[in-house]
Each structure stands twice: as C-alpha cells, then as structure tokens.
Amino acid sequence: MNIKSNILYILLAPLWMPVYSWVQDLVTPGDKPTGPTIDVAKIETTGYPTLAEAFEKATSDGTTIILQTNFTQQEAVTVKNKNTLDLNGLTLTGEEVDAENKATFDTKAQLTIKNGTLNGKFIVTDPKNLFAGTDVSLGQTIISKDGKELMYRVLVKNENEGTPRFTRGLEMLDSYSTSNNIYCFWLPASHAAQAITCKIGETTYTTAPITIASHSSEILTLTEASDDPSEPSDPNGPYTVTYNTPVGGTLNVSAGKNEVESGETVAKNTTLTIKVEPSSNHYKLALLLIGTEDYTAKVSNEKITYQVTSDTQITALFFNTNTNNGGGGTIIYPDCPTCPDAPDYDFDENFSDDFKEWMDKHYPGWSEWWSGNTTKDYTVLVRKTGLGTITPGTTGANKGENMTFNIQPAQGQQIVDVRINGNSVGAVSKYELKNIRSNTIVDAVFSNIAVPVYTLTSKVINPKEGSVSPTCVRVTKGSNHDFNFYPNSKNCVIIDVQTGPKKVTEEEQEKALTSIGTPEKYIFTDVKADSVIVVTFDCPTAIEAIDVPDYMIYTEDKAVVVNPDNQQGNVKIYNISGMLVYSQTINSTTHISLPEGVYVVALTIGDKPHIKKISL
Predict the structure, then answer these.
(1) What is the pLDDT of residue 202?
(2) Kind of pairing, strands 378-385 and 440-448?
C-alpha cells in the first residue's frame, strides 16, 4: 500500500462513514480487498474495487465500464472483448511503481475510451486496438507500445465508401481503430511534414501535411487529390533515379547485381541498394536524403534498401570528424589543411523546389554552405532527435571562431545528450564550441522525461595504437548505439574487445567485463544499464617478441606451431597488413599451415598475451 493512495482514502473516508462507521482498514486500489471499499468502476449497477476486476467481468462485446472516481492505475488490465471505458468526466492516471505494478492495457480486443482525461504513463500491448476520440484529453500523456516506442494519437475522418488503404510517405498505416467514421492512428514522432493519404479503389484522398510531435486534439479531413503531386504522370513508370557525387565518401546505387547510374530509369517497384561509405576513418555520413525524406538514421552497415515508386532523387553528405578532446568541457579541433571545405554543389540546377523547401525547414541556412560559400572556412551541421530546439541551426564558421548553442527541450521532454561529432558533452542546456578548426556536427537528443537515460563509455588499452568512437554517449533505455574501432596504422591490430556493465571500482569493473573477441565494431542493443566497452590495440610487427618462450611459438616444415603449454589458449594469426587470417581455441600443440610470408602470432592464455612475429 502506498502513501499517496492512503491520503486519497483518508480524504474519501467521511463519505463512507455514515454507512461504514466501523471501517478500520483502508486498502489501496489494486490490493485484494478484505472489507468494504469504494467502487472504482461499475458495469450497470455492479461496482468493482479495481479496473482489472471490472474488465474481467466484461465477458461480452459491447460492455461499458464506467469510472466512478479519479483513479491512479498501477495494474495490468486485460481487454478480452470489444469494450468501452467511460471515464465519466473524470481523470484516469497511469503510474509505474515497479516492474510488476504499472498501468498496462493488454488490448487483445478493441478498447474504446471516451469522455474524460488520461494522465501519466500507460503501456498498450497493441495500440491498433485502442480508440480515443476528441472527447478524451491526453495532454502530455505517455502512450507506449509494450513500454518501448512512444506513440501519439492522430485522428482522421473518412466518410468515403469502400475499403481504405492508408499511407504516410512510404509507410503503410495499417494499425488503427475506428468509431463512427473516425480513424484513430497511434504513430511515432516524425518531424517530416507529410500528409496521410487514403486510397479507395482508384481514387486518392489526402489530408494536409502534418508533423507528429504530440497527441492531436483535432480531426483531420480527407479531400480528393485530383492532382496528387506525389503521383508521377505515368503511374506505371519507368522512373528516373538521380544522385549526387559527395565529397568525403562514395554513394553507389544498384539494382540486384547491376549498378544504376545517375539519370538512369528503372521499372516500378525496383528495389535499390544504396551504399554510402566514408572515404576514411575520419569521415562520417551526416545526411542521406531520398526525395525529401531523411533516411540517415535508417542506414545499417553503410547501406539501405529502397523501393522505387516514383522519380527518385538521392543526396548524401559526409563530414570530416577528425577531433581531439581538449577536456574541461571544451572540444579543440586540430588544423587539418588537407580536409576539404564544404561540398561545392550547384543546388540551383540540381535540386527541386521541394528539396530546397525541406532543407530550409530542417537545416536553416543550408544554401550558404552547400553551394561552396567562400566567406566561411567550415560548416557546423546542427541536428536534433526528438522534441526540442537547438539554436543557432546549421551555419558556417571561420577558423578559430567560437560559437554558443542553446538547447531547449519541449514541454514534458528532457535533454538526453548533446554530442560534438558523436561524442557526449553531457545533457547541457548551453554549450560553447571553441576554436573551430574543422567541419563539425552538433547533435541534440531529446526524449520524454519518463524515459530512463544511460551512459555508454569506451576505454582504449594502448591509445597510441588505436582509438574508439565515440568515447562517451548518453542514450535512452532500449536504444541501440554503434561503437567503431580504428587502429592507428595498418600494422596495428585489435587483440581484444570486452564489454560489461559500468562498475564503481576498477576491481569490480575488471570482474564484470567479458571478452567478445576482436570485432571491428560493436553495437550496444536494447540498452538497459550504464555500460562500458574496452578495446585493446597492439602493433606487434614493430618488435620480434613479447615475453614468448621459444617452445611456445615457432615454425616447423613451413607451418606455424603453437604450444599452449598444457593450458587452454586462444590463438590468432595476422598477416603483415594486420588482417586476421586464423583464429582458434586450442589446448594442445597445434600445427597451422600458411602460405609463405611474415605473420604475427598472438597466443592468449588466461589474461596474458604472448605475441611473436615469424616468417615462413
């Protein structure tokens, strides 16, 4: 029983005393009642002390559960039939106490909520089965799908006969509930101004373009799109694919095994594979647009697939991210005379009005630097994720210039992280970028204030021989985040990568780490705690041996012989370029045949590495 609920019952007690003057024990809603309690909900004339019990008794379609008092829900409610929850002009507040006690609607069938206010946080197992019209006030209510993705209400009125097919941009919208020609969609946040379209037979209807940043309290109307600009003149194609040649990386487009050149036409529904690869370790993809949609966050392993349904324009932009952390909250950028300035694109000829309008909205001032503006030395690209603002936006900067950024979350939101070229400088509301000496990316990440935030940090063993990016980043619960490893020269190698939860002391941290081998990168997935990644680099070709007895690593009959000395060990062999050519766990003397050449053999027994350069 919690204190908040006790206070509620004490305040209500005078209402019951005339009838139950002998009542001694008060119970919290959700606890199993042992005596007379106030009714939280009713079905017809029968009262129930909890919502869960009321819904358990709603055994047929069309049953209405009526709320009887303002109530804080801390329990899971199972909706087995098509039911209505009438809030009766009152407020239902969702609250999470712990992993087992939180407001959850397990919507196995459609639940219609009407006439009142939802407040706090609710988990919905299947949002397409939840309907809440304009008579339900949501405000800053948090609606999440299975406790992960935040969803926002969008209402659309459709009075046209026939089976509708809803889309928004390239996304099919098939998760919705309906009531009296009103369609209730639950959609994730999106800052792209796009319409919801509805196709019935051969006719297309559309709403006004909308962004999704909060729960809508209005009903969008559909009008027939007689001249839909998103539809090509020939609905069956073929369609033209055009793309730019970016500075700092490559953009390749292919269909199956065939390369698609810019300006080439393809058939309708052709699946394109778009590869965006930085030209070196110090470049990073800053922007990938397909049409006017930002696909940057959807790129995985430097590629993305896209199905062509109209003329398609692809634009990629890379930035140099070579930085040196000067500490003390200040990022100092080394001079890089070989780094290119901002890309020199003639956007007036190559880009459509729709593209320029989109860029004006999302990257204010972009034309000043994209066109190769000679009045500024560098570009500062400003991006944001979630609901909030960062000012100024994308702009130019001269060498050595300082620039201050103000970061402001929207109502009900929090600053998760501010990142300079991918590295966290904390959840700060103001940050000064000092001594600018390269193109720079500034990211601000926002989320709902109820979402936990965790810190991911990297540590490098032998930092003179390699680096990890990022060094530190803050992410929301359930997020994924990439960490990339960069040996400093071609003869340097990764000899171990360890991950684990963040601990307070070095001794505890060492025990918590687990080796995951020698990958070239690592992705933290579904983050649920502060975590650490430790990467060990080595450049063993610079020396002949590191504490290796002759009997442990040697050559015999044009083969490498490795003797773990009656222990279990892990052996890895690299060629002179640092490429891993052999990896195996052994517990006895092992002969390994390799082509002639120079190799580095690394035998790890326990936590101790034994490394030797040999020739065959």
Answers:
(1) 78
(2) parallel
